[in-house]
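Q: Could you fold this chain for me?
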Amino acid sequence: MSEQPVGIDELLERVRAGYRRVDVPEAHEAARTGAALLVDIRYAALRERDGVIPGALVIERNELEWRLDPQGSHRTPEATGHDLRIVVICNEGYASSLAVASLHQLGLRRATDLVGGFQAWRAAGLPVEPVRS
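A: Sure. Below is the predicted structure, expressed as structure tokens.
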């Protein structure tokens, strides 16, 4: 028997049940202390419109797995190992959950995402800077 298709809301619920998401204060503290790498997966137009989080690594969603796989030939220097704590940030906290599921499949079990995404970060009044040209 084939499995019944699921809607996106159910898929998000299933994915999120597999890990603990972080809120803005926790993400900010983890980044501030070096306990986690913030990874911004928003596309360029959103970053240009709203700015970026200082110190966050920008990797657009379509490159994420290739850049963060510690065993990959296209990895970024920050992809130091499977034990790296990563907080994935999208615009509002939806695409980031699906991205985390993919990172978990690569063995990056400490990957999580930010509840509310970049918009929650900005609404909390935390640092944001314009995109540098």
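A (continued): Helices lie at 8-16, 24-33, 44-50, 64-68, 95-105, 117-123.
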